[in-house]
Amino acid sequence: MGTIIPTNLPPMEVEYPTNGQWTIYGRNGPNIYAQPHFISYPLFVTIFVQGDILVHIGIDAIPNGFIRNSLHTKSRYYQRLLKLLTNISQDKGYPFEQEYKTIPFNDSHISVRWSWEKGAGGIGKGVESDIYWGSKFEDGTRSVIVLRNLWGFGREDCRKELETGIGMPAVIPLTKLQLRAWLHDTVVLVSISGRDDNTLYAFKTNQSPQVLYQELHTLLSMPPHPNILERPCYLITKQTAHSIQHPLDPASLYCLEPTEPVVGFLTPYYSGGSLKNYVNNYEITLKQKARWALQLTSALLHIYEYSGGSDGKCGRYSALKMDNIVLDAAGNLRLIDFESAGTWVQYTPIEVMTAVRAKGRISRFMSGSSDTGTTPGLGEKCKVCSPHPCSVPKDMTGQERQAAHEKVLDYKLSQTSIISPSKPNSGAQYTGPPGHKKIPFWGDASDAECGAAMTWMLGCCLWCIFEDVPCLSGMGNYWFPVGNMLWKKARQSVPVAVLKIVGKALQTKADRPTLREIYEVMKSWEGALILKQVENEE
């Protein structure tokens, strides 16, 4: 691979903070991602620590995000946090371990706060915890047999499934998993207990069962491609309150199959990490750039041409960004994340932005949004500027207020996903492909419009690869210069024909090339480099 600069370690090489009772994997503000050692499998339970306790610990000295190296994991601040977690789990007045083991999956959290304790020396300050149960996720889950019926994988097709590999993957109970590292809010690294090979897998879930099953259906239905996330290896099920009361599924043949619902799935673990992280930590060779450009274009073209739904439309992929491109052990790209949740604003073409605004993202904030029911003004509460007071003077005209609030919303969108629909009802029952959620633009656009939008996003990622830029999310809403200023580093080594077609991909919709046209250019470029290498070796 490329020349190394400083680098983050693979998860299994990181020395995570631990004291034999707990292991810490990272934090997101006051939310701590940690696992007690009395349980081996992941429940996706976060620990919320009260702000002044974090100040007392010295939380600012602990980097935000998931731990990716061992530089500070032995610091006294992590040790203080570990001691805090050990104290709450060993509280003799509260059956913490017993409660934790029965907590519902992926919808619960632990709150840690100060308490006042009276001892021999008077009243002192201690900590106490509460476990908050949430059952919406489990209430919205479906069993394997129900999903099989909804997706058309009937019992009569079981033999065909075994012969072709198409159908439902094998099932493993959650309790068989061993947590090895925490990679993302909804992704952990696991192994399967009792296996001699100790193979690592990525365990993926979601806060919404509907979105989880939508992604799972996409991955099971899509024809395989060497540069796309492989088909899930296993489905993960969990015993719930409902499955305990009704152990046999009435949807199964003769009611002989268990009713434990699917809470996630396992996919191969790609040890190379994200392309964003690689570009940030390594020097990329020209050969790598050519190979990755071809692989990424090929993956998108495959989705567009061969992964359409039963409605006859071409396939579409709305989540393209550098974070969602990972590297396998051989250094080849793999496209991940098929939740259909959109991407960052900087990777989003103007026509998608327009469609999002057309859904009322602005107009619904303009009137009646203050506590008094009147149009908000400077310093008052406003749904656009929230949680901050409104930043727009009240004496502005309607159009001026609209423009000013659009700038505020654009900034907020630049910090979050461009597609932010109302949160799916986690407790609602999944009803199959007809009920899959549609996001603005992508659900209603024509094949040509979706192809053009995917071309734009591809152009953004190719620009990052060619210019050695890890990600666009921190570069503002209008990140790229126009014309001849588009390319700086790339013009020194990348062929003009390649730069030209990528530049066209970042133009208006009518002027963009097709994915197929970009693919042919990238294929010729990589082929020329391979031929040149062969000639030099001879």
Helix content class: 25-40%
Number of strands: 16
Distance between the termini: 23 Å
Shape: globular
The amount of beta strand, in percent, is 15-25%
Number of domains: 4
CATH class of the largest domain: Mainly Alpha
Secondary-structure-based class equals alpha+beta
Major beta sheet, specifics? 6 strands, mixed
Q: Tell me the CATH architecture of the largest domain.
A: Orthogonal Bundle
Structure description:
The chain is α+β, with helices and mostly antiparallel strands and 538 residues long. It folds into 4 domains: 10-134, no CATH class; 137-269, Phosphorylase Kinase, domain 1 (2-Layer Sandwich), CATH 3.30.200; 278-347 and 428-537, Transferase(Phosphotransferase) domain 1 (Transferase(Phosphotransferase), domain 1), CATH 1.10.510.10; 356-415, no CATH class. It is 33% helix and 16% strand. It is built from 15 helices and 16 strands. It has helices spanning 51-57, 76-89, 96-101, 136-139, 144-151, 158-164, 209-221, 241-245, 275-281, 286-306, 350-361, 398-415, 447-467, 496-505, 515-537, and strands spanning 3-4, 22-28, 31-36, 46-49, 65-66, 109-119, 122-132, 170-173, 177-184, 187-192, 201-204, 234-237, 262-268, 282-283, 325-327, 333-335. The strands form 4 sheets. The chain has a 6-stranded mixed sheet. A 6-stranded mixed sheet has the order 8-12-13-11-10-9, with helices on one face. A hairpin with an 8-residue loop joins β10 (187-192) and β11 (201-204). α10 runs antiparallel to α13 (447-467). It is globular, with a radius of gyration of 25 Å. It starts with a strand and ends with a helix. Residues 1-7, 118-124, 156-165, 361-376 and 413-426 have low confidence and may be disordered. InterPro entries: Kinase-like_dom_sf, Prot_kinase_dom. One of its GO terms (molecular function) is ATP binding. Residues 117-526 form the Protein kinase domain.
